[in-house]
Hints:
By secondary structure, chain A is of the alpha/beta class. Chain A is 28% helix and 32% strand.
Amino acid sequence: MFKIVKLQRMVPNIHLMEVDAPEVAEQVQPGQFVIVRAAEGGERIPLSVADWDRKAGTVTVVFMEVGASTGRLARLKAGDNIPTLAGPLGKPTAIASAGQVVCVAGCYGIASMFPIVRALHEAGAEVTVVLEARGSFLLYWEDRMRALAKRVFTITRDGSSGLRGHVSGLPEMLRQAGVAPSQVMVNGCTFLMSQTSKTLGGLGVPITVSLNPIMIDGTGMCGVCRVSVGGQMKFACVDGPDFDGREVDWKELLARRKQYLDEEAYLCHRASCARGV
Amino acid sequence: MAEKKKLDLERRAMPKQPPHIRRRNFREVAHGYTPELAIAEANRCILCKKPSCIEGCPVDIDIPAFVRRLAEGDFLGAIHKLKQTNCLPAVCGRVCPQETQCEEKCNLRKKNAPIAVGRLERFAADWEATQVQQQMPEMRPPTGKKVAVVGSGPAGVTVAGDLIKLGHKVVMYEALHEPGGVLTYGIPEFRLPKQIVRREIDYIRKLGVEVVCDYVVGRTKTLEQLLDRYDAMFLGTGAGLPWFLEIPGENLCGVYSANEYLTRMNLMRGFAYPKSSMPIKRHRRVAVFGGGNVAMDSARTAVRLGAEESYIIYRRSRLELPARIEEVENAEEEGVIFQFLTLPVRLIGDEDGWLKEVECLRMELGEPDASGRRKPVKIPGSEFRMPMDAVVVAIGNSPNPLIPRCTPDLMVNKNGTIFVSDVQTGKTSKDKVWAGGDVVTGAATVILAMGAGRAAARSMHEYLTGEKLAGTTSEVASS
Lengths: 277, 479
Ligand SMILES: Cc1cc2nc3c(=O)[nH]c(=O)nc-3n(C[C@H](O)[C@H](O)[C@H](O)COP(=O)(O)OP(=O)(O)OC[C@H]3O[C@@H](n4cnc5c(N)ncnc54)[C@H](O)[C@@H]3O)c2cc1C
Ligand code: FES
């Protein structure tokens, strides 16, 4: 059993959960994830780690409420216990100690990018953070990023903060700011990662993406998380989750992620019926 | 003394759910012997002077002795005899390949009626479970030594059970949220009810073993870090890495590894969807690649999920099927369709990335290969396609590389198995660390994993205390 220390809504549909898990807290590195179950009998949900406190022995994750399982998680509160928090899983993100690193993040990826930005900053790289969202009401942790990064840009679809538009505006934005990236990192939804890989692929620098396929065990046992990278089959949970976005077969990943949408939707529907929603 | 008995060559059948009923449920297929049937079957044993059945048993169970007790109606005596050498009789009685082990060596086999040792073993174990009072074993006083067991499959459970009885403190770590290894996540409910696995785990818990789930050794803590806390460690992490055929289309939606397919169903209780939250698809046409137990389990699971056609596609012929004969027969009765001498070469999908067709080649048997089996050879130009909604790849597993990758000084063999200097002890190249089960042998059997655990426990005990235990180390690990 793992005790929830804090559970709060950050922005609509995105929640932060801090859990007492000293063994994991002691070990975790930027870019790793944990597997969480909201209740006995519940699904195993992979969540990137957003922060940790080694002294207090806690691990923080930020998750989007997308289905029945994450919905269940979101309705828990501080003091409740969850039966599973296993990890840290996956390979830690490789942290550059020099150069200009551009970190593009959206959605729950803003949170998982935070420890990467912190590590890059501490290691001596110059960090440019780009936060992407539909509107400013979906942005969070901008202040945390500003405290570490050399520059922070925002891009919103509705123009309520920063550049109006999409990541397609990135190359121009970076050029104007005089940023010549030596590496790009992207955390967020599959769409953001694939688009950024395409848009910035021409720069000829590594584009490190943190893939989020469907997972079950997270230890390399089931193979459901397999992705094609550079034409080779990789298991994202053990060989990744970081890969070079220029080599990822995005079409396949998007299709594989959507496999259970119908079933998920049905479960959500059932769950809301049960709650009388 | 032994009066000459008239040979009874009627091997008693075990009552089973009829195929048309069990095709639609996940309950156990066989009901097990009644006491009358067990006694009758046990009475067929001719008590050979030189019982060759024991030779066939990887853990040297004194088979004639336990069978005789059953024949006399002494069920308690029988289970005690069994448990002296086999700590998981309810499991082994159900899943051991007896036809290539004890029953193959039985002298009545020549008459085509070997004693049903497995069914009797299962009966004795199930009988014990119905007794109110489970006898607790003798426990040695605490030695003050601490042991970590990594992995909670049959190998780990055996080591934990043996070492706790010898007075050592034992903590067992499991990566998943439930202990039991393949017994929990792989072998389906209809062949091995999970309640039985839970009972075995509860038993070692009662003896004092601490079971820590959701703990991925190598990640949550490295081996090195754990070794600081323990005097010795056993690695029983199994062979959990699924192989794929490496043919085009294996990443299409609707293509599963057997591990994924079975884990969704067993560990995550997908069969209860939508009551459980593990989504599963009810595919109409399912093809399983492979011919072992894992393949049979997958094809039979597909049937139970309502598949109209569930195929086994196997590149050799019926004779070479590695699965247990009983399970092949069960699968056939349940309507699984066998396509022998057939090799999948390509999976074809639609625009949206969903599997639509499987392209196969016909094979014929050629010269015997290194394994002594006749090698299948492709028949050129024999390509054909089968429309298919789902494919389950069940062609084998190798050990998970996670721990070796995080432990540079742990030697592994080329095929990924952990190197042990002596199979009789399971000692690895790393100080204080032993290993056994599928992680050493590659995917094998429950009984071999158990035997390896037993051998390692003896060696670990000797290392921890200097005491050599009496009795022979079973030959398990060497086979
Ligand atoms: C579907 C299926 C059907 C089978 N049918 C039969 C049969 O009928 N008869 C038979 O005799 N055999 C059968 N087998 C084979 C048999 O189950 C295995 O040989 C046996 O379970 C091996 O036992 P083990 O203890 O070595 O490993 P496992 O049972 O594989 O257990 C290993 C455990 O270690 C855990 N683990 C792995 N890595 C870590 C880590 N880093 N940290 C913590 N824990 C970890 C795993 O999660 C797992 O729970 C079958 C196998 C499968 C998959
Ligand atoms: S999640 Fe099962 S292998 Fe990656």
